């Protein structure tokens, strides 16, 4: 008996209608003491309620598996993006049912209100879709899916515990990666904000001889091909290929600053992955270096199909450190790893001129051998403060300090340019677009 009870009735819950009916029953019994006319009505009402409860119990438990449920979770989630999850439902009962669904999502989302309602007729199917946006990389543990079923009487609820715990890894933003890959293949990067760069010349890498069309540079006319075909022909050139593009990611405490749920490190990781993808599509070689108090990971530049997966596997595990960046170790790694002139995109952050000055000697050394692009971030909170009108003396002080820090960022750009180092000062939300823009501009201007 105990085994039977634990098997079937631990997942049985009382519904709201039952509590309302019991309340009415109690009220009838109470009023029957003062109103004799009610007679046996309270007993009759209670008896009917008891029969309905037994009927509801039979309806819910007469089949072992009344409702089918399957939760569809991707094999991996994309960090910082909306990931789609689905719950597939099918009703095997011979009557319509009302469903309540609790999905036990990972604790990292800090949500306790994942509750869905659905109504299914007999043999009806339905798919519930919802979105989750992770903001940290790592492993996320999904629990069970709790399904609560009610018959049309809705006096009782039967619970089904469906599925099993599942661990899903959260990788850097690969959903946007696919979008940028498709755009780069079709040369439609302008559709997502990538600017079209005007060429100041043309690459010396020959592509093909083609017929002249309006707008072609007359200096590229191929007179021999024109004489043979009897029509005006021009030489077509393409961007130089197999150039080395290295993303260097600073993992020190300067990159721990949060912005819209993600740290600056996460923004840098997402941008590095997309930049590497675009570089590979453009037939360049992509590589990666991560650095904190010492060099952490090095992925030598390559353009084989597996290169992007190698970079993603390294970036998946990266976390910010609490120490300063060892620029001497970075310089030694760059000199030992990069055997030819390369584009080095260094994702870091400077909050003061003194922080830049400490690293500047090593940056100048790297810039002697490679084309160095420093990518650092605007402090959007301070920028917003500097643009707000001051209402009192304290507000004037705050606004002045905010403007001072914002001005220092602009001074850093000028200081880097004075030493022949390229720089990109960008808000975190525009990082990816701005970095890919700059890469395309560098290739168009043949600076590598």
TrEMBL record:
Pfam families assigned to the protein according to its UniProt record, in alphabetical order: DUF58 (PF01882)
Full protein name: DUF58 domain-containing protein
Record's keyword annotation contains RNA-binding: no
Domain DUF58: 208-357
Transmembrane stretches, start-end: 12-35, 41-61
Keyword field: Membrane, Transmembrane, Transmembrane helix
